[in-house]
Amino acid sequence: MMLTKEKQKTALRLLKESYPDAKPALHFSSPFELLVATMLSAQCTDKQVNKVTDVLFKKYNTAEAFSQIDYETLEPFIHSCGFFRMKGHNILAMSRILTEKYGGEVPQTREELTALPGVGRKTANVVLSNAFGIPAIAVDTHVFRVSNRIGLAEANDVEKTEQQLMENIPEEDWSAAHHWLIYHGRLVCAAQKPKCEECTLREVCDFAVHR
Ligand code: SF4
């Protein structure tokens, strides 16, 4: 069930207090690096992606550089990530488009980003909010599970969850709330065994109240 507005405010305040320093887990030093790292992160832990990109970005870290290499050159760097073949081909195709159409820069609209190979709405939102400071809520597996458990959303799919979170969370907190929910999902509200007894949200959380 969706929480009342008052309880939503309380839940958001508690999350903010719990994770005041929440920030992206992926290593990056440019919008392009974040785009590549996020594309690699599907079905792969952030820790593993960081291991890969810490080496990869020392050698190639611009759209121009990636557009000049072939798949066989890229594969040894990324083969420890799940779905590396598909990701590798998408990253190279995406880099060529950025080089040819955008002067090597990452575009700053969701429409342009999601038109790139291998870039879905979640990846676009991660880049918009973390690289460009444009308010967006990327709904990954943690954000989806935790927000629907708490009652900040009540939806069966990612798009509706994103829409409801944008309605229920003040715009200035969208990007931070994405990180609060990820931290909470990793540290407390795990998929199989949520630690409700020690959770600061247990008084307001719809899942804890009704289980
Ligand atoms: S009370 Fe339980 S279900 Fe609710 S947010 Fe905390 S850990 Fe998750």
For the structure shown, list the relevant keywords.
211 residues, mainly alpha, Endonuclease Iii, domain 2, Endonuclease III, domain 1, 12 helices, elongated, binds iron/sulfur cluster
> What is the top-level CATH class of the largest domain?
Mainly Alpha
Give the helix proportion (percent range). Answer: 55-70%
Question: Ions, cofactors, ligands: which are bound?
Answer: iron/sulfur cluster
Number of domains: 2
- Would you count the extended β strands for me? 0
SSE string:
HHHHHHHHHHHH
Q: What name goes with the CATH superfamily of the largest domain?
A: Hypothetical protein, domain 2
Q: Which structural category fits the helices and strands?
A: mainly alpha
CATH topology of the largest domain: Endonuclease III, domain 1
Q: Name the poorly predicted regions.
A: none
Specify the biggest β-sheet.
none
Describe the structure.
There is one protein chain. With 211 residues, the protein is mainly α. It has two domains: 93 residues, Helix-hairpin-Helix base-excision DNA repair enzymes (C-terminal) (Endonuclease Iii, domain 2, Orthogonal Bundle), CATH 1.10.1670; 102 residues, Endonuclease III, domain 1. The protein has twelve helices and no strands. Helix 1 packs across helix 11 and helix 2 runs antiparallel to helix 8. The longest helix is centred in the middle third of the chain and has 18 residues. The protein is elongated. The model has no long low-confidence stretch (mean pLDDT 96). It binds iron/sulfur cluster (SF4).
